[in-house]
Amino acid sequence: MDNIKRFIDTPSQSYFLFGPRGTGKTTLVKSLFPDAMLIDFLLPDYFREYSARPEKLYEITSAIVGPKTIILDEIQKVPELLSVVHRLIEEKRGLQFILTGSSARKLKRTGTNLLAGRALMRHLHPFIAAELGSFFDLDKALQFGLIPIIAAAENPLDSLKAYLDLYIKEEVQAEGLTRNIGNFSRFLEIISFSHSSILNISNISRECQIGRKTVEGYLNILEDLLLAFKVPVFSKKAKRALSNHPKFYLFDAGVFRLLRPHGPLDSPQDISGASLEGLVAQHLRAWIDYKKLDCQLFFWRTLSGNEVDFIVYGADQFWAIEVKNALTIQPKDLRPLKAFGEEYPQAKRMVLYRGKNKLTSNGISIIPCAEFLLDLK
């Protein structure tokens, strides 16, 4: 897995590289810059040293002559260093800083505004199908997700459990992001029911038996730790009344499957459907990021109940995508896209499904999901 080429581009100037734990940030930058100076703040010695004396970074770089790349790994652990990095960049001494992190929460609180635009921003996502090529297995991706550290594990289920436990203990509990870890753990279970669904904070608050403000705070924690994202409603030049609540997604299909409780009343088809939609969401989000496209990811839902799962809209893209966890497509499955096409005839409309044949019906492309994902290059 270490040899799989990632699609993210690497600027020649200083940049932040954000991504959830286990997505391969350190592996990527070490492979691209084997001669770089690496300071890893997950190591206790480095963490203690630079937390106590951030100015040490200035001291050790003062002896460097000529261009040099310096990797500050998990920079959110020592946010005080940003002011030193800022100063070193301003001095224009040929130093390139790569600042990796699994959260921007603490960095935003330092008041440095993430170096005030002096460093670019990049995001590393879980694997996408086109990166894996022949290694991509749709069923396995739906079950265990595409986090590199999990995909490379001999026992992905055990690794997923350890991964989630690591996040709760190291990122949430140890960083003091919430005082009641029991409530947060309960929230994680309840929020999994909202994956691939309209976000209703009042319902989540009632199910968790905690206040609405606390739920909003927990959602902010998930987004700050890059573990979840929201997709807003597409409303440009809307002619119909639309829903005004966003949809919610956990960042990886495997994390969703692990968090989602399974019981006698839970439909395996519903869980698989949410997993498939989430997998497509994480691919589209990564693809937009990596291509640096001037477009955004939306969904469309009218108050009358017509819904299209994804709208990719921008200067050169206008896609409407419906995801169906089915081997065949029925005429009723095309109705939301037909309704969308009546309002937006410019859009390229697609249905992604679990079948094997590529078809067209009423101007709507019907595409095997795995084929579509592998083509997102």
Question: How would you sum up this structure, described in words?
Answer:
The protein is α/β, with parallel strands linked by helices and 377 residues long. The chain has two domains: 15-123, 3-Layer(aba) Sandwich (Rossmann fold), CATH 3.40.50.300; 129-374, no CATH class. The chain is 41% helix and 19% strand. The protein is built from 17 helices and 14 strands. It has helices at 25-32, 44-52, 56-61, 81-90, 105-109, 113-116, 129-132, 138-144, 148-151, 156-173, 181-191, 201-208, 212-224, 253-259, 268-291, 335-343, 369-374, and strands at 15-18, 37-40, 68-73, 95-101, 120-123, 197-198, 228-231, 247-250, 295-301, 307-314, 318-323, 348-353, 359-361, 364-368. Strands 9-10-11-12-14-13 form a six-stranded mixed β-sheet, with helices on both faces. Strands 2-3-4-1-5 form a five-stranded parallel β-sheet, with helices on both faces. Strand 3 (68-73), helix 4 and strand 4 form a beta-alpha-beta unit. Helix 12 packs across helix 13 (212-224) and helix 14 (253-259) runs antiparallel to helix 15. The longest helix has 24 residues, at 268-291. The chain is globular, with a radius of gyration of 22 Å. It starts with 14 loop residues before the first strand and ends with a helix.
